[in-house]
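A quick aside before the break. I want you to see a complete sequence-to-structure record at least once, exactly as it would be stored in a machine-readable document. Don't worry about memorizing anything.
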Amino acid sequence: MKQYLTFSEEVRTAMEQGKPVVALESTIISHGMPYPQNVQTAREVEQIIRDNGAVPATIALVDGKIKIGLSDEELEMFGKSTDVAKASRRDLAYLLATKKMGATTVAATMICAELAGIKIFVTGGIGGVHRGAETTMDISADLEELAQTNVAVICAGAKSILDLGLTMEYLETKGVPVIGYQTDVLPAFYTRTSEFQLNVRADDVETIASTLKTKWDLNLKGGAVITNPIPEEYAMDEATINNVIESALKEAKEKKISGKEVTPFMLAKVKELTGGKSLESNIALVKNNAVVGAKLAVSLNSLK
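That is the input. The structure line, written in C-alpha cells, reads:
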C-alpha cells in the first residue's frame, strides 16, 4: 500500500511532527469550478487551514501515485487540464495502474485520507441519493464510503439537487452520524436550512472532536458528516434556488444526462441560471468549512 502514497514536503513534515492535517479533494478543482477561480480558491482554502493551525493536504492521482499534498504547479496543472478523470472508489485501481491523472471525489478522498492516516476532510457538499433514485438506483458512492471509512467530512450539507430526505434515511440506515455545527437542521449547500431536522447539534468543535474520538475508540466503523451552514451573507433564497434546480433537472432529463455527469451539469446550469451567484456561494461555503475543519483537526489532535 505504502508504495502508492507520496507526500508533499509540507505534509510529511507535519506528520513527523504530529501536527494536525486536513484532507482536501481535487474534484472541486478539476470538475467543480472554472479556471482560474478553481486554483485561486484551492490556494486560499489551503491558506485558511494553515491560518487556523492545521496543515492542508490536497489529494489527487498523478503518475501512478496518490499524492497527499499538491505543489503550486500541480494545483495549476489540475486547474487547467481538461482530461482529468473523476476518481471514485471504483476508479482508483485502474487510474493508478494506468498512471492517468485523477481528481478525487469525496469517496476517493476519504479512502486516500484514511490510507495516509488523516481523519479530517473538508469539502463543499457530499453526494447523496439522487431524485428519482427509487427507479434509477442513482446513489452516490460517497454515502457507502461514509459507512465504512473512518474519516469525518466537514461540508455545507448535501446539494439540494439531491433527494435530501432519502439521503438522510440512507445515512441513518448505515449508522453514519450527521452532526449539525451550530445548527438543528440539515443545511442544503446554497441555503442554510432545509426541512430536515438533525438529531445531533454541537456548538463547539471540542464536542465534535470528543464524539469522533469516542466513536473510533469504540471501533464503530465509518465516518461522520459535520454539517456547517453557508455564511448568511452568501446564502441563496430557498425558493429561487429550488426553482433553478427544478429547471436544471428537467433539462438534464431531456438531454438524457445521467450517472456522474449529472452533478457537473447541474452545477454549471445552476451557475448560469443564477448569473454566477451560485459560484460565489460555492467558494464562500468551502472557505467557511475550511475554518471549521482546521479547528476540528487541531482539537482532535489534542485528544491523542
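Two observations worth writing down. The two ends are 25 Å apart (CA to CA). The mean pLDDT is 94. We'll return to this after the break.
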